[in-house]
Amino acid sequence: MPEAIDQLRASLRGELIQPTDVAYDTARKVHNGMIDRSPAIIAKCADVADVMACVTFARDSKLLVSIRGGGHNAGGLGVCDGGLVIDLSRMKGVRADPATDTVRAEGGCVWGDVDHATHAFGMATPSGIISTTGVGGLTLGGGLGHLTRKCGLAIDNLLAVDMVLADGRFVTASEEENPDLYWAVRGGGGNFGVVTSFLFRTHAVKMVCAGPTLWPLERAAEVLRIYREFIVNAPEDVNGFFAFLMVPPAPIFPEHLHGKTMCGVVWCCTCSPEEADNALKPMRGFGPPAFDFVGPMPYPMLQSFFDPIYPPGLQWYWRADFVKELSDEAVALHVQHGSRLPTMLSTMHLYPINGAAHRAGNNDTAFSYRDSNWAQVIVGVDPDPANNPKTIAWTKEYWNALHPYSAGGAYVNFMMDEGEDRIKATYRDNYDRLAAIKAKYDPTNFFRVNQNIQPA
Ligand SMILES: Cc1cc2nc3c(=O)[nH]c(=O)nc-3n(C[C@H](O)[C@H](O)[C@H](O)COP(=O)(O)OP(=O)(O)OC[C@H]3O[C@@H](n4cnc5c(N)ncnc54)[C@H](O)[C@@H]3O)c2cc1C
């Protein structure tokens, strides 16, 4: 084995890191500080050839493999114990092409890399709400964010991927080439191979009218009841995710609100400020909000708005569901649990899945919950591991109370390790087709450090 590792090291353009190396402890860390895994080898690949060499090496050595994009995964699926981490973080090439309204991003890009490249041309492609999240994991799970209602999910704008398969082959998946694989990677996660580059459609989005509107907790039930109708019927230019949050002591918030638990909506309107003001009237019309920071800003500014609040290394405990309807009972339970955030950074978000995201059907891509209206995520977050019992208990209690009102499954990118039944509930009748495609492209389940789909 040491000889084979030396050969692998010699064949890589990138860096190979082992437990005895100084860089090891930093390289094995992921965004979630709760994850503590010790791989045997971390390969910081520099190009596709490096990825192919890693796949061949791991297959020949019968070594477990994980794929690391941005390292943000809730359950820490970018890193594994005792195996080889194919770390793509050096593969950050981006090429925005205004002539074809596309952007090509290598597998290790984070969204800030893509936004920076596209913004120069007045373009954007849908991603999430934080610029440090990986393009790889977010896209392959679906991709929900500020532009969902206007442009659909990230996968709705994914035109092609280049991939290294379990047998070492390099293929493209698109509408024309390997269309079964193209269907599967749009929601099926990292089950099918290492995506070395993504080709996305871009849209003319440069300035947005965006920011948070906050209300006191006493109005939370009223806000949720108005929001549930509003966001399903709003113009597609209007996106807004609902949140319970504790106001951080950041300069944009008035001091008297610092540390207060409140509810709010974070807006992203792709129309003019006048049109946004007009569209948001129903959400403002039932009395002035406690804080309203909606205004024109460059799209990348919105995308990096929350980055400083969630730096790497915090302890994160996640629970999620898809939601079709917010009944009055569910609203009451949200207010009950959302009012008791256990720590400053803990939160509950409802991300809209409607507008343009409803144009595709449940079976058009692997993402099978197009008939839902929100992805709900409850996260207990804190820097101090000593607070984990508190944040975990709150998250579980909140989730247990609301789960009966959910649509069943959960967004794969918001799940930790919740077992096979939960994965099946998430893919519903797409699961069997995914399992058949898995059997074709990865029959030995070589790529299994993910929300795993067993080969049929
Ligand atoms: C602070 C924060 C904010 C978030 N906000 C959003 C949001 O707004 N919208 C949203 O949809 N999600 C969001 N997420 C969830 C996010 O989509 C998932 O955590 C996702 O897995 C992160 O992708 P990554 O590449 O950073 O993760 P990693 O941990 O690097 O990878 C996770 C898994 O994805 C797969 N993968 C990653 N890259 C590749 C690749 N190139 N080829 C093949 N497989 C790959 C692998 O299976 C890997 O195990 C957020 C997460 C965090 C921590």
Description:
By secondary structure, the protein is of the alpha+beta class. Helix content is 28%, strand content 22%. It contains 15 helices and 17 strands. A hairpin with a 4-residue loop joins strand 5 and strand 6. Helix 8 crosses helix 12 and helix 12 runs antiparallel to helix 13. The protein is globular. Bound molecules: flavin-adenine dinucleotide. The site of flavin-adenine dinucleotide has 36 residues, from strand 3, helix 5 and strand 9.
Task: Produce the secondary structure layout.
Elements: H1 2-11, E1 15-17, H2 24-27, E2 41-44, H3 48-60, E3 65-68, E4 84-87, E5 94-97, E6 102-106, H4 111-119, H5 135-141, H6 148-151, E7 158-164, E8 170-174, H7 179-185, E9 194-201, E10 207-216, H8 220-233, E11 238-246, E12 261-269, H9 273-279, H10 281-284, E13 291-292, E14 295-298, H11 299-303, E15 315-323, H12 328-338, E16 347-352, E17 374-382, H13 388-402, H14 420-427, H15 431-441
Parallel strand pairs: 2-4, 3-4
Antiparallel strand pairs: 1-2, 5-6, 6-9, 7-8, 7-9, 10-12, 10-13, 10-14, 11-12, 11-16, 15-17, 16-17
Helix pairs in contact: 1-3, 8-12, 12-13
This protein binds flavin-adenine dinucleotide.
* Main sheet: strands, sense, barrel: 8 strands, antiparallel
Mean pLDDT: 97
Name the beta content range: 15-25%
Q: Per the principal axes of the C-alpha atoms, what is the gross shape?
A: globular
The bound ligands are: flavin-adenine dinucleotide
Would you count the extended β strands for me?
A: 17
Structural class computed from helices and strand pairing: alpha+beta
Radius of gyration: 21 Å
Please tally the helical runs, counting DSSP H or I stretches of 4 or more residues.
15
Helix content: 25-40%
- pLDDT below 50 for ≥5 consecutive residues: which ranges? none
